[in-house]
Amino acid sequence: MAAILRNGARSPERLRHHYEVEKRLAARLQAAPRERRLHMLTALYEELFCEVPDHPRLVIKQTPEHSRANVALQMQLVHRFLQPHMTLLEIGPGDCAFSFEAAKRVRQVYAVDVDAVLSRNAQPPANFQLFLSDGVSVPVPAGSVELAYSNQLMEHLHPDDARQQLANIFAALAPGGAYVCLTPNRLDGPHDISRHFSNQAKGFHLKEYTVTELAALFRATGFRRVSAYSKKNNVWFPVPLGAILALEALLERLPAHPRRALARRWPLRPLLNGALVAVR
Length: 280
Description:
By secondary structure, this protein is an alpha/beta fold. The chain is built from eleven helices and eight strands.
């Protein structure tokens, strides 16, 4: 493919083309009424991939080794919350590699996604069940889940839909159940294709959040406690939520360019882009 440079990167012209296409499609999604946009995303991704054939998701193939390493990193965070008697719910499981691994450690795994495409290389375990969703609904039995989990999902939802989905996750959790949420931080973003051209996410990251915004949203939904985790050298550890909130308040006072440059440096970036755990 001529648009791919020798080092594997794309030319500035191809990056710009990707940005303009994704921005246009995202604007269409943002403007659509709720009853339409819940059913648009799959078709919009197909249109994106057709117009951007050098999209990284089409060109860069994930190896089995990379998939196992990714699952291991996720499990390094989540395992501390798992118990054999639990029901685990994963929202947006993708190829279900994490759900399949987690099924070895819990009684039941529910996965909620917008289509029925599972891993083509693995047979679902007996204690795994897939539920189809419109992208917002969480159609599992109410109060049946001890631990819910999503990884890089919330930023793809319209803000109104994200709030509704969070309420549905809350309803799925049993009293004392927890939701582990990983999503990129707005302060060192944007994290989609917009990062090459804009200070704000304008592609398929419909909204990127700060930890402060997420913690407030969780509490408004009804979660009674929110805690934070960060990682160093692929090892996750708890960090004081108040310290992150204070850090974000300071960063918010800066102009966009220096704020983003500072937020992308160590140790700020791992603090800002950790995980939140909200307990019902």
